[in-house]
Amino acid sequence: MKILVLNAGSSSQKGYVYDIPDETLPNQALQPLWEGKVNWTEDQGVAEIEVKTGTGEVLRESIYGDSRQAHVAYMLYTLSHGATKVVGNLSEIDVVGHRVVHGGQSYRDSVVITEDVKKEIGCLYTLAPAHNPAALDGIEAIEESLGNVTQVAVFDTGFHSTLPDAAAIYPGPYEWVEQGIRRYGFHGISHQYCASRAAQILGRDLTSLRLITCHLGNGCSLAAIKNGRSIDTTMGFTPLDGLMMGSRCGSIDPGILIYLLRQSDYSVERLDYVLNKASGLRGISGVSSDLPQVMEAIAQGNDRAQLAWDIYIHHLRAGIGAMLASLGGLDALVFTAGVGENSSEIRQAACDAWEFLGLKIDLEKNQQQPIDIDIAASDSTVRVLVIHTQENWAIAQQCWQILQK
After folding, report:
1. Where are the extended beta strands (E) located within 102-172?
2. pTM of the predicted structure, to 2 decimals
3. What is the CATH number of the domain that holds 345?
4. Burial, 126: exposed, middle or buried (Cβ in 10 Å; 0-12, 13-18, 19+)?
5. Are residues 134 and 225 in the same domain?
6. How many structural domains is the chain composed of?
7. Contact indicator for 191, 230 with CB cutoff of 8 Å
8. 250 with 342, same domain?
9. What 3-state class would DSSP assign to 122?
10. Residue 340 annotated as binding site
11. Using one digit for the tens of pLDDT, what is the confidence trace for 235-278?
12. Are residues 241 and 146 in the same domain?
């Protein structure tokens, strides 16, 4: 079964093709036959495309067109033409899976995309303005290029639909609940994948584990996972809530927003920009939203960069503590995504706070760019895992399972 996965971002569209046997779904991730990426530049109508295949062929070029759909269509063209060809014809694709950031309350599980599903994804634009429109563009690009192929929506909010009301409902007026204002949580595909992979690595049944998964990238969120189900998470009604992130502020006193709107002549648009694009590591350090650049500035004696690091670690530890309280114990702490997988300093700083609980990392293992292994010390009471998140493989798995049904 050939499965195409599209993962839409605010300024990019990524594609992956997997060939999964019809009979059995492998336990571990397969390598994609083909990977494509379109990055949109600030120049209208121009995009950068990069394609590579499992056999090592690479294509890089600038492409031109009237719309993002045209750019995606060109990326798909490379699937069946030129040096990066991996299928004879696009009709060989059996199913296309899409990462959709927000499914609201209507969609808790992956679904085959219909006109009603497309309409609902569109209705949720205001809750995920950087991502849901891009996902819908991808869906429509597939309709243009592949016709009536089965398409599946896999929702980032779906895994967190098991949150208990006490964790999901905000303590505002009850009318908010009736309006759908609640904690949805995000990065759910990643958290779910990492929980399952953690159980494999530990040789344990997922339903017996208490896990905290730390998805730390430019966007950051934690999830408390008990018996395979998400019971708490840091992101909320939008991806702005929770931890300090690359350029997002995370949780702050809502009174600050009222103050700024009243006293500083902030427009809603300016406030949105400041909270999402000019806060977090970027806002405090004045250097970058990229952690390695902030760390480089610290090494050069930049006090604001040091402050950004200190705040980041404080919020990360506080978030882990909150998840720990929800779980009532912990079997494994999991680090994933760009920062979680690559920063030994972040992992050590996060773990140092919990030595009083008997959690200890092996300093040597932590420094060795570990992937999909346990880096806890042998006498640690809690296992510490570094897992390479594979959201695209997880989406492909969901597509395979839906087609089998």
Report:
1. 111-112, 150-155
2. 0.92
3. 3.30.420.40
4. exposed
5. no
6. 2
7. yes
8. yes
9. helix
10. yes
11. 999 889 999 999 999 999 999 999 999 988 899 999 999 999 99
12. no
pLDDT band at 22 (very low <50, low <70, confident <90, very high): confident
- 45 pLDDT tier (thresholds 50, 70, 90): low
Query: Catalytic residue among 19, 137, 156, 241, which?
Result: 156
CB 157 within 8 A of CB 105: no
Q: Are residues 251 and 341 part of one domain? A: yes
The answer to the question of whether 7 is labelled as a binding residue is yes
C-alpha to C-alpha distance for 188 and 186, rounded to whole angstroms:
5
Q: Domain check: are 359 and 210 in the same one?
A: yes
Cβ atoms within 10 Å of 273's Cβ, excluding its own: 14
Specify whether 243 is located in the same domain as 333. yes
Cα 15 to Cα 5: distance, rounded to the nearest angstrom = 5
**Encoded tokens for 138:** 């991808």
- 156 has catalytic annotation: yes
pLDDT band at 10 (very low <50, low <70, confident <90, very high): low
Residue 315 annotated as part of some ligand binding site = no
211 and 332 inside one domain: yes
**Cα–Cα dist 399/94, whole Å:** 10
Cβ neighbour number for residue 101 with a 10 Å cutoff: 27
Closest CA to 74 of 40, 121, 31, 114: 40
Note down the domain range covering 301.
203-384
Judge if 140 and 258 occupy the same domain.
Answer: no
219 known member of a binding site: yes
The CA distance from 234 to 220, in Å, is 9
Asked whether residue 302 is assigned to any structural domain, the reply reads yes
For residues 335-348, b (16+ Cβ closer than 10 Å) or e, as one string? bbbbbbbbbbbbbe
Q: Which amino acid is at 177?
A: V
Map residue 299 onto helix, strand or coil: helix
Classify residue 211: in a domain, yes or no: yes
